[in-house]
Amino acid sequence: MAEPLASPGTGYEVLENEPPELMGRGLRVGTYLFAGGTAFFFLCFLFAFFYLRSLDNAGMWKPKGVDASIPWGTVIVALYVASALFVRLGLADHVAGRHREWRQKGVVALALGLAGLVVQAIGWSHQGFGPADGGFASVYFGWTAFLFLFVFGTMYWLETVFATSLRYRNTLTGQPAPGEASGDPDRTAHDIQDPLSLVRPGLEALSFYWTFLAGIAVLAWVLLYLV
Question: Tell me: domain 18-171+194-226, CATH 1.20.120.80, correct?
Fold first, then answer.
């Protein structure tokens, strides 16, 4: 039986210096797949909204007093959209070589996204109904709760991209030591050639997904607060 490509006895030279373009393409393709999975996930709530609304069994779709606060919902979605916009503007700065400006916009985007999560948490406590108060209430709390989790994960992603860019902002003395980017100090070379070159494709993938998720938030705002 042939020896596996990577095993305890395999030399590091087999695993080192992978062209960064491979990882960059992997990030983009993985993000597209993740966005597709996210769309199908929230499709469940979209179906539940229209299905339960059309049935309206015993008039329990939206009983009296069950109305989501438009001001709270508008502020939340506006913060999400603004955060996604700043990430996209930061990407434009990064592509143009304005790395300091990208980091400034990255901080603003992170602050806006986290502010949206805080406002959402406060907004739940100010709603005059609970998840068991009819079909609309169940869809509202389910949709916004899972959107909260997805946004939280996206903010963590943004923080990691920003932290990497900030940590190695000095390109003269801030290059990572061999193996540092892979988390293995015993390596004699990087596992990926110029690992910092992956900041841009990572930011591109993040910008695409965050814009996509912000679009889902806008759809939720139209259906849950305006319809």
Answer: yes
